[in-house]
Structure formats: structure tokens, C-alpha cells
């Protein structure tokens, strides 16, 4: 059995950052993110690499909802423009989902909730509102009902509600995997990020839901290089960029080699917006081409979460 790798990329745009006051990691009219998706899709078509794109459901819309009355915490929708894609392309992006659907590779389009809620921190009623909206919106858009969920910030949803909505597989933080823990302090976290430490462990079925494990911080892009339009943390800027670039490339190829040696599994991910700059992209391209070559020599296979779910059951 060759090793297996899954790639997931979050299409969340404004929804993933507005609640944290970080809209400026995005380009003003998402030109950078729109072209970042195009070049990623073009590359995936060329080298036949499928990606699990997880999408904030509201992005599929081209008009605002009639009502945002949903039991979310006070102010949740205050900074969301009630307009449409022309005026607020960071909150409405049906064109991007069409681009993914039009690609020649069969990418998976699944869910990242409807409004980027932290699933463990909202009431069951609010979570059901989110999933009701997701299912309806996917249907109206002509997409299959999603069976894969990537919970925002890895905040774990109650499994009972997932089963109600036929969600079968969830990307999970490595802390849920046997033998793995998260960093307990900032220094350890910085070291984890710099060394690209990743869980190398097979997906497993827990409470009838398949869990696939990954790092809390993005791994396809490096937080120490550049986060979308924003500079990395000053701690990382103290290291010359050429050194950081080399480090990220090496971290990625090393973790892949280890997974291959162990006949195991890794899940590599990022946000679309994090890839939308000239620092991260050349390294992503180089790495995906490397993965494609390893697959050509049967050293690994690439699976979407949907495919992984089928194989794990
Ligand atoms: Zn997110």
C-alpha cells in the first residue's frame, strides 16, 4: 500500500477573518484570491491533483439572506455587507465555486459551515440553522449534499448533529488522534510551526464519523512566510526569508518522505487567501509537482475526503 495524502483548501474569504478583525489579510476586492484560485486550479488540471475545497455556504449566494435571525451571538452579522458579489466579493463568491466546478479535475466541494461558526461554541439550534442553510444552498447551486465537514478553527461539532445531516467525515485537530497533543505554550507552537511538525496517522472511525487529522495551523502554506496580504509575525521575520523558504520546502518534502516510509497518511491544508501572494505560491507549485511525480511512481496516492471516507468504512 502506498502512503496517502489529502489536500484541503478553505474557501472562506471574509467569513473566516471578519469576526477576528483581520479583513486586511485579504485583497480589497479579492483580486488576489480570485487569481490565486485560478492558478491553483490550472496547476491541478495540468498535474491531475484533486483537492477538497471546503466552502463557507454563504459564499455560494449572490444575494443576501432575507433574514439573518438565527440565534448567533449578538452582532455576528453586523460587519457582513447585505449586498452581493459586485459590492462585497469577499462575502459572496459563487463565481469561485463555479471555477472549481468547471475544472477538469474532479475536486470535492464540501462544507466549512454556513457562516464560519466555531461549532462547539454555538447552540445546537444555531448549528442546525447552519447545516439547514448549507444543505439548501448546495442543492440550489446544483452541488451534491456535502458529506465532508471542515469545522472552522477545528472546533469539534457534536457528532449527533453531524449524523442528523449525513456528514460522514470531519477534518480534525491532531489532538483527537491517539498519541498526539497540541502545543501547550507559544514557544512550543512557534517551534512546531518552524519545524512543520505534522501528525502522520491513519484516519479512523469514531462514533460513526471518520476523522482525518492535521495540524491546527496551515501546512500547505507556512505561517512564517506570509499570510495572504499580511506580513508574518515579527518573531519569524527575524529569520531571513530565503532561509524560511528553504525551511518550508524541506518540512513539506520531509513529512511526505516519512509518511511514505511508514506507509501512512497525511492531511495537508491551507486557506485560499493564504496562498494569494508571490511568496507562498512558488513553493506550493513545486511541492504539488513533487507529489504528482511520487504518485506516478506509485509511492503515494491522493484522496479527497469523500474518497477517504469510502475507504475508511
Ligand atoms: Zn476557516
Structure notes:
GO terms for molecular function: hydrolase activity, acting on carbon-nitrogen (but not peptide) bonds. Pfam families: Polysacc_deac_1. InterPro entries: Glyco_hydro/deAcase_b/a-brl, NODB_dom. One of its GO terms (biological process) is carbohydrate metabolic process. This protein is α/β, with parallel strands linked by helices and 313 residues long. The chain has one domain (3-312): TIM Barrel (Alpha-Beta Barrel). The protein contains 11 helices and 9 strands. The chain has helices at residues 14-17, 31-47, 94-102, 124-141, 159-164, 186-195, 234-237, 241-261, 272-275, 281-296, 305-312, and strands at 3-11, 52-55, 108-111, 148-149, 169-173, 204-206, 209-214, 265-271, 300-302. The strands form 2 sheets. Strands 1, 2, 3, 8 and 9 form a 5-stranded parallel beta sheet that branches. Strands 4-5-7-6 form a 4-stranded mixed beta sheet. Strand 4 (148-149), helix 5 and strand 5 (169-173) form a beta-alpha-beta unit. Helix 8 packs parallel to helix 10 (281-296). It is globular, with a radius of gyration of 19 Å. The two termini are 17 Å apart. The structure holds zinc ion.
Amino acid at each position: 500500500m502506498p502512503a496517502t495524502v489529502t489536500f484541503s483548501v478553505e474557501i472562506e474569504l471574509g467569513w473566516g477573518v471578519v469576526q477576528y478583525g483581520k479583513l486586511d489579510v485579504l485583497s480589497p476586492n479579492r483580486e488576489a484570491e480570485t487569481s490565486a484560485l485560478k492558478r491553483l486550479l490550472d496547476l491541478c488540471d495540468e498535474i491531475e491533483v484533486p483537492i477538497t475545497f471546503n466552502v463557507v455556504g454563504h459564499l455560494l449566494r449572490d444575494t443576501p439572506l432575507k433574514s439573518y435571525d438565527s440565534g448567533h451571538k449578538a452582532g455576528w452579522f453586523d460587519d457582513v455587507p447585505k449586498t452581493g458579489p459586485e459590492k462585497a466579493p469577499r462575502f459572496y463568491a459563487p463565481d469561485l465555486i463555479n471555477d472549481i466546478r468547471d475544472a477538469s479535475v474532479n475536486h470535492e466541494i464540501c462544507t466549512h459551515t454556513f457562516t464560519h461558526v466555531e461549532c462547539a461554541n454555538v447552540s445546537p439550534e444555531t448549528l442546525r440553522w447552519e447545516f439547514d442553510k448549507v444543505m439548501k444552498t448546495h442543492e440550489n447551486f446544483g452541488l451534491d449534499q456535502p458529506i465532508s465537514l471542515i469545522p472552522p478553527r477545528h472546533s469539534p461539532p457534536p457528532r449527533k448533529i453531524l449524523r442528523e445531516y449525513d456528514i460522514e467525515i470531519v477534518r480534525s485537530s491532531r489532538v483527537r488522534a491517539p498519541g498526539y497533543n497540541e502545543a501547550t505554550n507559544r514557544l512550543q507552537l512557534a517551534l512546531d510551526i518552524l519545524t512543520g511538525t505534522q501528525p502522520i496517522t491513519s484516519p479512523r472511525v469514531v462514533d460513526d464519523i471518520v476523522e482525518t487529522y492535521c495540524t491546527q495551523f496551515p501546512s500547505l502554506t507556512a505561517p512564517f512566510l506570509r499570510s495572504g496580504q499580511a506580513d508574518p509575525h515579527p518573531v519569524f521575520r527575524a529569520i531571513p526569508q530565503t532561509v524560511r523558504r528553504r525551511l518550508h520546502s524541506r518540512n513539506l518534502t520531509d513529512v511526505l518522505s516519512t509518511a511514505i516510509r511508514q506507509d501512512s497518511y497525511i492531511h495537508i491544508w491551507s486557506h485560499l487567501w493564504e496562498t494569494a501572494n508571490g511568496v507562498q505560491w512558488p513553493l506550493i507549485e513545486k511541492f504539488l509537482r513533487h507529489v504528482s511525480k511520487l504518485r506516478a511512481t506509485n509511492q503515494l496516492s491522493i484522496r479527497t475526503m469523500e474518497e477517504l471516507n469510502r475507504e475508511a468504512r
